[in-house]
Amino acid sequence: MLKRFMKGVARLRPPKPRYNCVWEPRQIFNYFETHPAESLKALSMKLITLLTLATGQRLQTLSLIKISNILTSEDLIQIVVPDRIKTSRVSGRQPCLILPRFNDLPHLCVFSCLQRYLQETEKLREGQENLFLTYQRPYRTASKQTLSRWVKCTLQLAGVDTSIFKPHSSRHASTSAAKRAGVSIDVIKDSAGWSRSSNVFAEFYNRPLIDRSEFAHSIFNM
């Protein structure tokens, strides 16, 4: 009976995507290019925002990063997240985040940003394993909600309309940008933590850019 009831509810109110369009990550990049992270607060906000864009992962996953699970080589950082997350399954794979070094984009290099963050927080940790700490005394592990506020603040500073786009929209923005750039669907799914058989990206995340002038331009440029 309950199963039939839930099916009926699903038919009456089918799940819909939160967004019909999405912002351009270039907005965030332009902001970082002109606003160096000169304080721990700014560095913290920059790192979590770059991580959301570089990996396409949920903030829940990023909040669980432990410094002992960060493996660094010369040109690559690999981060394993063994903790249980939203998509954890008995036979499923846990997230493995890959962060390449971008020598030609120093202001956007999440590899360098992470290394700097680790250096600046080393003496503040007092044995705390989680990567992200609050930037004010007493320095404690930053919760997922705190990270969400940091991302929201960054979006606001960069000019993204946060009355429409929530912090989670960074996942939409990054995965949609990767698709537009020609990255294969399988690579996007692997990076963002969706299974190869999942339709979540196509149904809820792959969104066009905001361009309210597109219609008029299409008319006058004919």
Please give a structural write-up.
The chain has a single domain, classed as hpI Integrase, Chain A (Orthogonal Bundle). The radius of gyration is 19 Å and the shape is globular. The protein has a 3-stranded antiparallel β-sheet, with no helix packed on it. It is mainly α and 222 residues long. Helix 3 runs antiparallel to helix 5, helix 3 packs across helix 6 and helix 3 crosses helix 7.
Q: How are the SSEs placed, and which strands pair?
A:
Blueprint lengths: L1 H11 L13 H9 L5 H16 L3 H5 L6 E3 L3 E5 L15 E5 L9 H12 L22 H14 L11 H12 L4 H8 L7 H6 L8 H7 L2
Antiparallel strand pairs: 1-2, 2-3
Helix pairs in contact: 3-5, 3-6, 3-7
Question: How would you characterize the largest beta sheet?
Answer: 3 strands, antiparallel
Q: Briefly, what CATH class?
A: Mainly Alpha
Number of domains: 1
Strand order of the largest sheet: 1-2-3
Order of helices and strands: HHHHEEEHHHHHH
CATH architecture: Orthogonal Bundle
Radius of gyration, in angstroms, nearest whole number: 19 Å
The H-level CATH homologous superfamily, spelled out, is Intergrase catalytic core
Structural class: mainly alpha
- Quick one: how many beta strands? 3
Proportion of residues in β-strands: 5-15%
Shape: globular
CATH fold annotation: hpI Integrase, Chain A
Please report the number of helical segments. 10
Specify the helix fraction band.
40-55%
* Low-pLDDT runs: 212-222
